[in-house]
Amino acid sequence: MLSQPQYYANAREIHAFWLAKQQTPIFAAAMLAQADAESSLDPNAIGDHHEASGLHQLHMDRIRLIRDGNGTWPGCGIDVSKLPSIARQLEAVWWELRHSEMHALKMIREATTAYDAGFAASAFYERPGAPGQNVKRGHRAVFWASYFQQRIGGG
To answer: What is the DSSP string of the chain?
Structure first.
């Protein structure tokens, strides 16, 4: 488990990453809410009976696609199972959103509130098996949007 200062430092890094990719603050909050729910913002997290890795708890089928690509897209070469830095893991997720998860990217971008973006990111990108997760992650995106709005101002 991360210390509270490290948890919030990781949150700032994740939020800043998405803003640097020219995504909206609600998009950043939505993706941050996913990483929070999946790994508690720990880039070294291993879960799902040792079958999922990193911030977004990606499984090997998704990790291989990101790393190696397929007949449609070349991969980006990032192996999330090796637990690279936060920035590298997020680059892998960014690759996935622009390739094999384009529908999820579209749905998150179309959201007009942090809640809706968090709900969409859960429903279309993470697709968790536990009931109620889309709602919980929508609320967590609202928390993160408010947290950063208070600290850096603006939407």
So the answer is: ---HHHHHHHHHHHHHHHHHTT--HHHHHHHHHHHHHHHTT-TT-EETTTTEETTTTEEHHHHHHHHHB-SSSB-----GGG---HHHHHHHHHHHHHTTTHHHHHHHHH--SHHHHHHHIIIIII--SSTTHHHHHHHHHHHHHHHHHHHH---
